[in-house]
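cron nightly-structures :: item 1 of 1
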Amino acid sequence: MNNAEIITIGDEILIGQTIDTNSAWMGTELNLIGVRVNRITSISDRSEEIKCALSEALTRADIVLVTGGLGPTSDDITKETLAEYFGAEMVMNKEVLAEVTERLHRRNLQMNENNRRQALVPDKCTVLMNRTGTAPGMMFVQNEKIIVSMPGVPYEMKHIMSEHVLPLLSGKVAGRVIMHKNIMTYGTFEAKLAEMLETFESELPENIRLAYLPAHGVIKLRLTAAGGNDDRIREAISMQVEKLYGIIPALIYGEDEVMLEEVIGKLLNERNLTLSTAESCTGGRIASLITTVPGSSGWYRGSVVAYDNTVKTGLLGVQPETLRLYGAVSAETAGEMARGIRKVMETDYSIAVTGIAGPSGGTPDKPVGTVWIAIDSERGLVTEKHTFADDRLVNISRSSYTALNLLRKQIIST
């Protein structure tokens, strides 16, 4: 019993009003005990949809976890639908009724019929007490397969999973281990990285899989291994990680979900160095990323968002002649911005970014997505030109992370 499916119920999920964070949390926790989630399905609050999704899931999975539709209102139909599906009668559970009554009493609320109905459960289920809300969890067993229905409220679902479901499943999958290792990369695109790792992938052992997870230019390489021995799996993954460092050393910036801004902070802090930023097209995005890192005040001095050219000339010392001859989006302007902010803030390193985020403002020579990045330090000035996308938000994000990665490479090259 090591494979599961998750079914989330609710029109609010399907129309985008609510983001399904429950499945992500359950997937993580199930993975830790050796249960693999093979499919996640979101469905509407309709009885026929619930029954159909459940029937399909039971043809594939040993464990089916259902969330949503257990509230006290008329649109919460999951409990009654499950009773019909399993041929059960609804009965009043005294323990649940006592829990609901006590919870309402503590809040100085009167019991009404809707609250009382929360204690009605199918007589063929095992009740999983919910000490954080009024809707209990319910577990059914059919043909040695486990079906668990839980509230959609995240903290209630987590309580039932942690107190009842995970301990139960842990005992049934004892001896199986699933382990992940994440290698964080930046500096190329997914198709190119896959080409570089083609031979590496073809030589992977049968019990290890590689996944590419791109976001904002960062590509997370996730190695997943399954087996019955912690030490052997850990050793097998370590061997593959060592191979990756040998193949793409320049692209790897860290491991295990670490972000570029965290790596930058660690590098600067270890070397007792300081940083400042001057941003035009990114509008403060780099500063925002940096200041999410705890302790960044120890190595980050501040930023100037020089969106208008008068700010570039007035605060950063960009020469009007530079703007006239080369334009705001140029190596020359980026370089003077970097030198200017480093001088004003008196820092060891500085980043400057200027570009055309879009969707308008591009020219044949400088299309939307054209960005110049400059890094200044006592070692000198480094500038790079990049052409990203025609999407404004993508350009802002990619420019910011590319600037941080360029800084990282400059620091580690000393």
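cron nightly-structures :: done
The CA atoms of residues 370 and 387 lie 4 Å apart.
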